[in-house]
Amino acid sequence: MKALLWILLGLLSASSEAAPSGTIVQIAHRLPMSGAEKPLPRDFYVDLGAKHGLKEGDKIQVSRLIPVMQSMSGQPASLVRLPMGEAAVLRVSDFVSLARTTQLVPPSQLPSMNYYQFMLGDTVTSLIP
């Protein structure tokens, strides 16, 4: 009976594990040398790797925390998490991975902000099935 209880607890805890989450720690890009060049891919490094369960080809979701301020006091009222897009993992090491932007949320679906591309500190969450 105890063995069955431990098996059930193990199954419940395995299914309730959250997907690994990290942040963008470096943006990898080069500047175009002329206006005739095609748009360059937007690559970045995240602080998730094989030790977190990430594999080459995995999809990750990128989001940004935006502080909402109280207009009267100027104090933070809340944080709002906005989805910014998705990326594909290209290379994986133990603790860091290289990813490439595959989809950005259109600016028309986001509040007014200064930067609509992925940036340092944005949160990444693995979309491991």
Describe it for me?
By secondary structure, this protein is mainly beta. The protein has a single domain (18-126), classed as Thrombin, subunit H, CATH 2.40.10. The chain has one helix at 2-15, and strands spanning 21-28, 43-46, 59-69, 76-92, 97-104, 123-126. Strand 3 and strand 4 (76-92) form a beta hairpin. The longest helix is centred in the first third of the chain and has 14 residues, at 2-15. It is globular. The model is unreliable at 1-16 (pLDDT under 50).
Radius of gyration: 19 Å
Sequence of strands across the biggest β-sheet: 1-2-5-4-3-6
Tell me the number of strands: 6
One letter per element, helices H and strands E, the order comes to HEEEEEE
Q: What percent of the residues sit in helical stretches (DSSP H or I)? A: 10-25%
Q: Largest sheet at a glance?
A: 6 strands, antiparallel, barrel
Q: By helix and strand content, what is the structural category?
A: mainly beta
- Looking at the overall shape, the CATH architecture is Beta Barrel
CATH class: Mainly Beta
CATH superfamily: FlgT, C-terminal domain
Provide the β-strand percentage band: 35-45%
Q: What's the overall average pLDDT, rounded?
A: 84
Number of domains: 1
CATH fold category name = Thrombin, subunit H
Distance between the termini: 32 Å
Residue runs with pLDDT of under 50 for 5 or more positions = 1-16
What coarse outline follows from CA principal-axis ratios? globular
Number of helices: 1
